[in-house]
Amino acid sequence: MSESGFPSLRLVPKAEGPQSARDFKTDQEVRWCPGCGDYAILAAVQSFMPELGIRRENTVFVSGIGCSSRFPYYMNTYGVHSIHGRAPAIATGLATSRQDLSVWVVTGDGDALSIGGNHLIHALRRNVNLKILLFNNRIYGLTKGQYSPTSELGKITKSTPMGSLDAPFNPLSLAIGAEATFVARTIDSDRQHLQSVLRAAAEHQGTALVEIYQNCNIFNDGAFEVLKDPGSRDEALIRLEHGKAARFGADLANGVFRGPDGELFTAPVTADNEADVLVHDAHAASPATAFALSRIADADTLHHTPIGVLRSVERPVYDELMASQLAAATDGRGPGDLATLLAGNDTWTVD
Amino acid sequence: MKPGKPIRRLDRVIIRFAGDSGDGMQLTGDRFTSETASFGNDLSTLPNFPAEIRAPAGTLPGVSSFQLHFADHDILTPGDAPNVLVAMNPAALKANVPDLPRGAEIIVNTDEFTKRALAKVGYPADPLGDGSLDGFHLHKVPLTTLTLEALKDSGLARKDAERAKNMFALGLLSWMYHRPTHGTESFLRTKFAKKPQIAEANITAFRAGWNFGETTESFAVSYEVPPARLPAGRYRNISGNLALSYGLIAASRRSGLPLYLGSYPITPASDILHELSRHKDFGVRTFQAEDEIAGVGAALGAAFGGALGVTTTSGPGVALKSETIGLAVSLELPLLVVDIQRGGPSTGLPTKTEQADLLQAMFGRNGEAPVPIVAPATPAECFDAALEAARIAVTYRTPVFLLSDGYLANGSEPWRIPEVDELPEIDPEFATGPNREDGAFWPYLRDPRTLARPWALPGTPGLEHRIGGIEKQDGTGNISYDPANHDFMVRTRQAKVDGITVKPVEVDDPSGDARVLVLGWGSTYGPITAAVRRVRADGGEVAQAHLRNLNPFPANLGSVLRSYEKIIVPEMNLGQLALLLRAKYLVDAESYNQVRGLPFKAAQLADVLWAAIGTLDEEDNR
Questions:
Q1: Is 3.40.50.970 the CATH number for B236-422?
Q2: B286: closest CA among B299, B277, B274?
Q3: Which residue intervals define the domain Pyruvate:ferredoxin oxidoreductase core in the entry (chain B) (predicted)?
């Protein structure tokens, strides 16, 4: 891994030697339910971190409250397990004051989109150098099974015995609407894909939002089974790659097309329409196509769900702008003089 | 000055400028204050303005005022009742006349006393002609006409020229009280540097006002208030919010911790955000957050990274930040929470003062979550309070409340500028290596002296650790639900705060014979002290003490309280400190309180003290 591979980490000190996944494990017993998708994500992250090539002590994981937010306890880095919904705010303070740190936020659908929705959207629009991993299991786990802001309409849960009444958020649409510069989706059980998305997020300068479909085998088991089952997943998943045609299904028989009304739709690829298959451009200046892609999945069946990096664009990074203002304020003049400041311009002397 | 116009010497004067919110009364007051400060008087100010930016013109709710008390001796309050009222319109007159003692001077802008303007505020007849002001010394001045006349060659449109009438009034008052004028002229040149025509117009109006006083018959006398004899040193005038901002910057410098402010705009705290955002050359990072919660969250996150994390707000903001402050209690990280108190509950009185957040600061969190509290007594003391709050936060790894209020924030007084090297140093004592013999690092292994835990910054190799809001095992900081451990940790966090070293409370009891103690905290210091002086001047004996540390209380407070037969606690709330004193020390502390959005008056408190003395005397005679 060359250093230039992670421009977002150029201010973070490099590791002196090679690291392994073991270096990132703590001695704490992992306390998720057996079979929870969080185990797979934890293992994937632990084995991915050495790739960054930065000092372990310069990595910080910040989380809120919820099952996913226990994550920092299991990462042998610096970590803060904070309060419900506030992780993006706390991480913003850390990342904007310490550019030598790689700061990761671990959150869930309730934490990030319900109680912490405001902090999430503002972190995204500011484009602070944060990597936000949003574990979406479409349910409240830690409070034992209430519907979440990503639960499907009509969800029967403990708090909604006759079905939930509110329409769910689409986290990627929300992020794109909040001016996010990097938006991606992946799945807990697909380690290779998950790590490829983490890699892209780590390379990105600014806030990266990674939605990770995560199975809660206790309260919402099988929520994403159609995307995981070897028998259905090829038909259900659209694996987006920048610069490549958006084709999916067995033998890539299907594709994403743009209709005359500008809307995206999926259809079998034929010799006639092959040239019209949408070529995915994650770097497009306009968020319109990424937004349309974020909503192309069938809400009921999850068929043709895009995964991968939907959007990755460059925009000035908040913490860099903040640092440059500080630098500009002392440029050529040096740091401020406290005695001069305290005296001000209008003094008098009493003898 | 024309020969023949007499000059009368006074030891103190209280002036109130009053007008529409758009009349520039705050600016006028500020300028007169600056002139007065540079002349060397002691002074104290009280700005009073509506929450609305531009309430309907000419109405009572739209009246904005600025009161200034200046003297040839040291003074403590903006004064109970003005000697001089400048009323720019009928609303300003009507709103302020009830505060004037008989014989006070009133300067009115007669141009604004039209039928319509009088009707708008419910004057059935023109008060300037109906004899209702006969008890006052009334100066009828057509300020608008005179200003327009002075600016007829300025080339300005009538509307723009008219706006300079506040400077005409300032010029007139500057003549009346022999204020130096060059400061105002250079201020106007700087303020309107990009609009030289406006600058010149304001200066012309200002000089015209001065000359008007000099030449007109209606102002027969001018007054002289000689400079005060303050302790030797170099002085400037400073408001509470400015002093507090400088205190934070000084604390950053003296601790070597970069200052990080996470804040959300709220009256009357926003000026600290504005001020600190101007000092990036001191390495100050200011983050205007999406809400109050994010403001304190970012400050706490920055503290985890080794910054001096600060959040500034007022009461409603504190309510929103409570959960994060509790997290800071649990994380045991330094954090300053600056609460510029205002009238409550809810939105309350955003621009008026109150000190009703004491119990919120003390107890307003879930669980046992003790937080130290520091409260400055005067505008200039806000500087020292910021340094003291930072010392406690950094030394003990704890959030600290700094309770100022709207009166301190906007009021100003002369401040002896401290030498930088006389300011206290604050040592963050970061953890640099393992603290266990086996080479491990335990984030909750405490300093036995202070009970503070180590502050290990990300980037320090070998000290990687995880902390959170879940209860932690003593020492290791690992998650623990063990009952005995929780009991121990709750008691330890309390013991840490209880054990903070604070200065003993000083008692001012000159004769040593006083039986009544008046005890205050925060901005009531000025009126309480002025009341105590009055009582003593009239032969009464009263002891005075003032608390700067509200949590923990000074160690000697209990014995001080038990040394007096009667304890009076004046507060701008319904008795919050009194409640704490009664609970902690089992003493019969009597609350005297008001929540009018305005400071106490010295005369009012003097009556209360005399009554207390009288009660004891009666008991003796029974």
A1: yes
A2: B277
A3: 514-578
| Distance between CA atoms of residues B100 and B106, nearest Å | 9
Say how many domains are in chain A: 1
Percent of chain B with pLDDT over 70: 99
The DSSP code for B419 is P
Tell whether A336 is within 8 A of chain B (Cβ): yes
Beta-carbon contacts of residue B236 (< 8 Å; ≥ 6 apart): A343, A344, A346, A347, A348, B37, B414, B415, B417
Residue B616: pLDDT band (50, 70, 90) is very high
Residue B335 is predicted with a pLDDT of 98
CB contact under 8 A, A346 and B253: no
CA distance B589 to chain A (A): 39
> To which residue do tokens 């979406």 refer?
A136
3 state SS of B310: strand
What distance in Å separates the CA atoms of residue A209 and residue A309, rounded to the nearest whole number? 10
Select the residue of B38, B302, B331 nearest A97 (Cβ to Cβ).
B302
User: Cα distance from B416 to chain A (closest Cα, Å)?
Assistant: 9
Residue A298, classed as helix, strand or coil, is coil
State percent of chain B over pLDDT 90.
Answer: 93
Give the CATH architecture of domain B507-621. 3-Layer(aba) Sandwich (3.40)
- Topology match between the domains B236-422 and B507-621: yes
Using left for φ > 0, alpha for ψ between -120 and 50, and beta otherwise, residue B390 falls in alpha
How would you write A50-118 as a 3-class SS string? HHHCECHHHEEEEECCCCHHHHHHHECCEEEECCCCCHHHHHHHHHHHCCCCEEEEEEEHHHHHHHCHH
Q: In this model, does residue B3 exceed pLDDT 60?
A: no
**Cβ-defined contact of B37 to A342 (cutoff 8 Å):** no
CATH code linked to domain B7-224: 3.40.920.10
Give the model's pLDDT for residue B229: 86
User: With an 8 Å Cβ cutoff, are A118 and B235 in contact?
Assistant: no
CA distance B564 to chain A (A): 38
Model ipTM over 0.90: yes
Residue A195 predicted with pLDDT over 80: yes
Does residue A66 lie in a domain region? yes
Tell me if A347 and B305 make a contact (CB, 8 A cut-off). no
Measured distance CA(A34)–CA(B309) in Å, rounded: 40
State the best of B277, B281, B436, B466 to mutate against chain A, taking most chain A CBs within 10 Å: B466
pLDDT tens-digit profile of B342-390?
A: 999 999 999 999 999 999 999 999 999 999 999 999 999 999 999 999 9
Q: How many CB pairs under 8 A join A and B?
A: 203
Query: Domain residues for A32?
Result: 7-223+316-325
B253-291: pLDDT as tens digits: 999 999 999 999 999 999 999 999 999 999 999 999 999
For residue A60, list chain B residues with Cβ-Cβ distance below 8 A: 304, 458
Domain ranges of chain B: 7-224, 236-422, 507-621
User: Are the Cβ atoms of A339 and B306 closer than 8 angstroms?
Assistant: no
Indicate which CATH number applies to the domain containing A204.
3.40.50.970
